Amino acid sequence: MIEYKHVALLGLGLISSSIAHALRRAGFDGKIVGTARSAATRQQAAALGFCTRIAETNREAVTGADLVIICTPVGAMGGIAAEIAPALSPGATVTDVGSVKCRIIEAVSPHIPDGVDFIPGHPLAGTEHSGPASGFAELFDNRWCLLTPLEGTETAAIERLGTFWQALGSRVDTMDPSHHDLVLAVTSHVPHLIAYTMVGVADDLQRVTESEVVNYSAAGFRDFTRIAASDPTMWRDVFLNNKEATLEILGRFTEELFALQRAIRTGDGDHLHDYFTHTRAIRRGIIDAGQDTAAPDFGRFVAAKLPPKEPS
Ligand SMILES: NC(=O)C1=CN([C@@H]2O[C@H](COP(=O)(O)OP(=O)(O)OC[C@H]3O[C@@H](n4cnc5c(N)ncnc54)[C@H](O)[C@@H]3O)[C@@H](O)[C@H]2O)C=CC1
Ligand SMILES: O=C(O)C(=O)Cc1ccc(O)cc1
């Protein structure tokens, strides 16, 4: 059962509008007060009608809220926390949905007043679409939502937030924030960077081959173009705020790529065959373990394999 009575959604885009739709589907009868930076977005959200009320400012939206969810690009979250701090109600929970966790914790927690819990979160669910019209109630169904609570946070507050995400359809788990950032660098951030790069390469090539890249693109490349259509501001902020883990995984990726490049150049078919046999076994292992292709499950699979990130 959802224990909150007044949910404030800061930022009105894919994730926040999906939260509102999923709340309504769950029968939530409390208040959903949303706000966004631009008047045009606020008007669009008001017309779509998924909030009880649209507030003009972040401070107005959080006034009286017992759950505040920051749903903006990662780079904006610290400034928003500073802005809302004086208006937060004692006993409220502040959470976020950002794709990285350590930098958000650094930016947000110094502003959270005593008596308010900050519990960082990340629903591992999304699409390449953005804006208030892109949300839908089923987005979080059977997807993981990872909470990365800070030391000393009351278990009851964490459980309350976990129950909230379960009511939206999610499976909920907790994780150490730096481990989260490393796992997500492998399963989401670097794959997005690769997709962005591959589409850029194809675009260069297309100038030579005219429309062949589009005409003959296979399913794999089409998936790359879908991912590479994701919101530029959001992904700029992800990479700038998960720099260390992204560079670590990108370094490993580049080493493996060079080894494959060398195998192709030298005609080392055994190396290629062994490598592809190994990766196929990984994929089949995921399926045999009852975890299908969904990224969140793959995330857990990788989490089990990666060593915990060493403190920097
Ligand atoms: N899109 C996805 O697939 C997923 C996104 N996330 C995370 O969720 C958060 C929101 O993402 P989406 O809903 O996809 O974004 P979106 O682009 O659909 O919506 C973002 C909202 O934030 C507002 N905003 C933008 N810049 C702002 C600023 N500087 N100050 C205040 N408000 C600002 C926008 O007006 C918009 O209302 C991001 O932090 C992202 O990392 C998490 C899981 C999946
Ligand atoms: O659309 C896709 O394939 C995604 O990978 C969605 C996504 C994007 C960012 C996240 O932090 C979590 C999920």
From TrEMBL:
It catalyses: prephenate + NAD(+) = 3-(4-hydroxyphenyl)pyruvate + CO2 + NADH. Pathway: Amino-acid biosynthesis; L-tyrosine biosynthesis; (4-hydroxyphenyl)pyruvate from prephenate (NAD(+) route): step 1/1. The keyword Transit peptide does not apply. PROSITE patterns: PDH_ADH (PS51176). Gene3D superfamilies: 6-phosphogluconate dehydrogenase C-terminal like domain, NAD(P)-binding Rossmann-like Domain. Pfam families: PDH_C, PDH_N. It comes from the Bacteria. One of its GO terms (biological process) is tyrosine biosynthetic process. One of its GO terms (molecular function) is prephenate dehydrogenase (NAD+) activity. It is an enzyme of class 1 (oxidoreductase). InterPro entries: 6-PGluconate_DH-like_C_sf (IPR008927), NAD(P)-bd_dom_sf (IPR036291), PDH_C (IPR046825), PDH_N (IPR046826), Preph/Arog_dehydrog (IPR050812), Prephen_DH (IPR003099). Its EC number is 1.3.1.12. Residues 5-294 form the Prephenate/arogenate dehydrogenase domain. Keywords: Amino-acid biosynthesis, Aromatic amino acid biosynthesis, NAD, Oxidoreductase, Tyrosine biosynthesis. Belongs to the prephenate/arogenate dehydrogenase family. This is prephenate dehydrogenase. It comes from Algicella marina.
